[in-house]
Design a protein that fits this description.
- This protein is mostly helical and about 120 residues long.
- The protein folds into two domains: about 5-50, no CATH class; about 55-110.
- The chain is built from five helices and no strands.
- It has helices at about 10-20, 30-45, 55-60, 60-80, 90-105.
- The radius of gyration is 18 Å and the shape is globular.
């Protein structure tokens, strides 16, 4: 995805076309965001081999998506903030998990595991 013309596809032009078809004015910043950030995030969803219908994340409920975002944010803080290393994988994962949260069934708070019980001392 790093190359704008991988596999002969001009991702920036495809982004322009998509935005126009969605009745949006394709500003240069929006085109770059779609082609260089959101498209690689979607590639993760298509290429990692999780359930294609999203059941992998849906089964865990919406609260899990927040946990996943926070875990990736901790990794970004360690890698990028503290050590000055790029960490595209965790940044992309944050975008995907935040999108899962927005798409979540708000009635499915805890997922298939249900709410946590009492403390281990109970």
């Amino acid at each position: 995805m790093a190359e704008d013309t991988a596999n002969g596809m001009d991702y920036h032009q495809a982004a322009v076309d998509f935005l126009e078809k969605c009745s949006l004015v394709p500003t240069p910043d929006a085109v770059e965001q779609l082609a260089e950030v959101f498209l690689p995030c979607l590639a993760i969803m298509c290429e990692r081999g999780y359930d294609p219908d999203g059941n992998s994340w849906r089964d865990k409920g919406w609260r899990n998506q927040i946990t996943e975002v926070m875990e990736r944010a901790d990794r970004l803080q360690f890698n990028v903030w503290r050590h000055g290393r790029r960490d595209e994988n965790n940044a992309r994962d944050i975008i995907n998990y935040a999108a899962f949260l927005l798409r979540s069934d708000w009635g499915n708070e805890w997922g298939k595991f249900g709410p946590p019980g009492g403390s281990s001392a109970d």
